[in-house]
Amino acid sequence: MPEVARQLPKARRQNMCGICGWIDFDRDLGSPDARRELADMTATMAYRGPDDEGTWIDGPVALGHRRLAIIDIQGGRQPMTHQEDGRPALVLVYTGETYNYRELRQRLAALGHRFDTSSDTEVVLRAHREWGHRDPRRAVSELNGMFAYALWDTAKRELLLIRDRLGIKPLYYYPIEHGVLFGSEPKAILANSLAEPAMDADGLRRTLCSIPDPDGTVFRGMREVRPGHIVRVTRDGIKQMSYWHLTDSGHTDDVPTTVRRVRELLEDTIQRQLIADVPLCTLLSGGLDSSAMTALAARFSDERIRSCAVDFVGYTDNFTPGPARATPDGPYVQDVAKFVGTGHTDITLSADELMDSNVRAATLHARDLPLTMGDLDSSLYLLFRAIRQHSTVALSGEAADELFGGYRFFHDPAYVQADTFPWIDDSDDIVRRCLDPGLVEKLDFPGYLDEQYRRALAEVPALTGPASADPHERRMREVCYLFLTRYLPTLLDRKDRMSMALGLEVRVPYCDHRLVEYVFGTPWAYKTFDGREKSLLRAATADLLPLSVVQRVKSAYPIIQDATYDRMLRTRFTALLNDRNAAVAPLLSLDRSRALLDATDSFRRVEEILTLEDFLTDYNVSLTI
Fold it and tell me: Sign of dihedral through CA atoms 339, 343, 348, 349?
């Protein structure tokens, strides 16, 4: 019989959590050594799920789960099993939210299913029993939400690893000789002695190019379940299949109809995502995306909505406009908070807080990767830490820019027509100027970028209908696809890691797949019909917002403009170059790096090197370049 172990007292709980597991078809994982390894893997997910823990072991399969309390206070403990003939037939470890679980529950009940809990986990489990026994894609396609889960079928002796359509929730796997290790984060996999923390040339390319490979990771041998995909693990091997991808919808609605439909979809998804038995807030920047989301949340919430914004000491008073940030957020945040009537809080940060060694270590541990956005990471972590003091759920505006065409890259012909990813600018890459020239030549960054770019273009669904005759419409279809599938995943991963590191669930209404499918299918001319960025979103929500926000030009997430921050970076980078035992030293040209110190006052990009040093050291990563 399978062994089930659970600890910790009952608490508010749901599914925003961490999962991990181990399949070895040639081994009994019930041995003491294997149980200890599973316990170590599960323990790495404790901060993702601080409220509850569960494990399930039966022969070749060992599953672990940690839970964060959101909904269903009394039910839905995991791993969850579906019993047949007195034995588990299906076993599930699940993380995420299925927003349409109530409708699915009614449909399944009408088909004869009887439920023991009120959790969406049980709905997902029974959906697979009802619709997925022949083809799991049929069951997954019924789900609306953000999720990553593993399902073990005892009769078929197969494991399914399943990830949501946009990749909102992470899921990694590591093939071994007779099976696989998997986890919500790499650290869960690396806690098993069978996984080696190693980085090869591909991992270094991925790190320093900042272009996510949809399959690979920075760790040699480790893979990521692609968004909208299922990985099937059997004794015969590992196979991947797609259950969802962006397609051409043949959009026929006119502009007014399209605007109304966008509003309808936004209202529906935000209402679904307001459901929680714990305090909830919104992340408010004073831009169109977060303001519209906050206004709709306030309209449909039974209680006064909290809103939160990040700010920096002296930021508004000393603000300097730039290409990505024309105006400071503060005045617009206050306009929205007053207009909508939120209970608003500003979280104001200083350079000292952003450079605090404990904060930087926490962000690296949260990300599990040598990928950094510098103070963007640190400030987000500190923002989430402050929010977690009063809220367990937050709504965030990721994907609106990618979906509705908000970034300046969409509107500058030089970026649009560039034969590469529009957001890539290698004209003055500080990081590569610091690297050893021989290494730069060996890694061939231009070749890697071009390969990834061509792979992405090959996936773009062809444009049909009258718009297909317009070269600009065809190119903008490609650009929109690139942003949704290669740019957005980085932001979603950052959001998930920083929030879950603090036990905070962040929901992303603009990632609702119905909204994504509909807006992706609209002509580019619709998305700019008023001569500006994000025309559809503006028209769909203008009645909810103050005029100042409706008219505001897109401004990116703020970065600290305190010169103290750059001086701190310079000091750290200088110390690194003087450390002969630095892990990253073999990759650098000391002469070129020191010359850079004397030639520039901007050290934001060298944070990638500083973070890579911390990563190689903290994770004891072996480099095989």
Answer: negative
Q: Per the structure block, which two tokens stand in for 432?
A: 């590569």
Two structure tokens written together for 549: 């926000």
- The H helix count followed by the E strand count for the chain is 26, 20
pLDDT tens, 183-229?
A: 999 999 999 999 999 999 999 999 888 787 888 899 999 999 999 99
Answer yes or no: 17 catalytic.
yes
Q: Which of 426-430, 553-557, 612-616 has the lowest mean pLDDT?
A: 426-430
Give residue 277's Cα distance to chain centre.
23
Looking up tokens 């909102």 gives 168
Say which residues have a Cβ less than 8 Å from residue 246's Cβ, sequence separation at least 6.
Answer: 461, 481, 484, 485, 516, 517, 520
The DSSP bridge partners found for residue 216 are 223
Partner residues linked to 124 by β-bridges: none
Residue 307 per-residue DSSP state: E
d(CA 74, CA 64): 20
* Nearest-angstrom CA–CA distance, 491 and 33: 38
Confidence at 1, pLDDT banded by 50, 70, 90 = very low
pTM over the 0.85 mark: yes
- Please name which of 492, 520, 450, 438 lies closest in space to residue 201, comparing C-alpha atoms: 438
Catalytic residue (one of 17, 209, 281, 480): 17
In the chain, % helix, strand, coil (3-state, to 5) comes to 45, 20, 40
Using DSSP, state whether 529 is helix, strand or coil: coil
Token pair recorded at residue 142: 């019924």
Question: What is the CB-side half-sphere exposure of residue 558 using CA atoms within 13 A?
Answer: 30
Measured distance CA(165)–CA(506) in Å, rounded = 17
Q: Are 199 and 470 in contact (CB under 8 A)?
A: no
Report which secondary-structure segment, H or E, holds 198: strand 198-200
Residue 83 corresponds to which tokens in the numbers above? 């019993």
Q: Please list the residues that pair with 611 across neighbouring strands.
A: none
Q: Kind of pairing, strands 3-7 and 52-58?
A: antiparallel
Nearest alpha carbon to residue 481 among 416, 401, 403: 403
| 483: DSSP letter | I
CA-to-CA distance for 43 and 301, rounded, in angstroms?
36
Instruction: Measure the CA–CA gap between 501 and 495, rounded to whole angstroms.
Output: 10
* Burial annotation 243-252 (CB, 10 A radius, 16+ → b, else e): bbebebbebe
Asked whether 55 and 42 are in contact (CB, 8 A), the reply is yes
C-alpha 306, offset from chain centre: 23
Angle at 45 between CA 41 and CA 50, to 5 degrees: 135
Condensed to tens digits (0 to 9), the pLDDT of residues 92-148 reads 999 999 999 999 999 999 999 999 988 899 999 999 999 998 999 999 999 999 999
> Side chain identity at 59, as an amino acid letter?
G
Q: Which of 262, 260, 299 is nearest to 282 (CA)?
A: 299
Query: Residues 451, 420: contact at Cβ < 8 Å?
Result: no
Nearest to 121 by CA among 100, 143, 150, 98: 98
Place of tokens 């306030």: 298
C-alpha Rg value of the chain to the nearest Å:
24
Contact 19, 65 (CB under 8 A): yes
DSSP for 166-187, written as a single string: S--S--EEEEETTEEEEESSHH
Provide the token pair at 163: 């990830």
Q: Which residues neighbour 116 within 8 Å (Cβ) at sequence distance 6 or greater?
A: 75, 122
Structure-block tokens of residue 96: 């995420």
